[in-house]
Amino acid sequence: MDDGVIRDQLERLVLGEGAHVPLERALAGLAAEHRGRVPEGLAHSIWQLLEHIRIAQEDLIQYALDPDWRSPDWPAGYWPGDPEPPSESAWTNSVGAWRQGRDLALELVRDHDRDLTAALPHARHHTLFRQLVLLADHAAYHAAQVVDARRALGAWPPG
Asked: For the ranges 17-21, 32-36, 54-58, which has the lowest average pLDDT?
């Protein structure tokens, strides 16, 4: 298959296009009072889901790029303990950091000087392609949980 076709499809996957609601849309217009509430019957608040996505995304990218990267402890290092964001700026910073990470992932996809399928020098059984697919798959899974949480809170679809 043509490298350009693979990169185009991977880019769309990272953007959340296709069969899923992109995280960007899942978060759109979310009122502050809904960010830290854990809906009945669900395990996490939308704040916890967003932070989890952001932390995992950073880990997946940095693991691919930096042989000295150390992943957070599992599971505590991947989930904020408090369901509430500590402040409005914490929420805004988390959304911004998630977008920056997503944009870095897109840069990696679009960089034709990078071999997506070559084994990582420090992890022979992993490739950049694998990391980016995991990143997209993980975000899609949890974006669906954001939508479920919003439905349970009566905050879906976005206004």
From this structure: 17-21
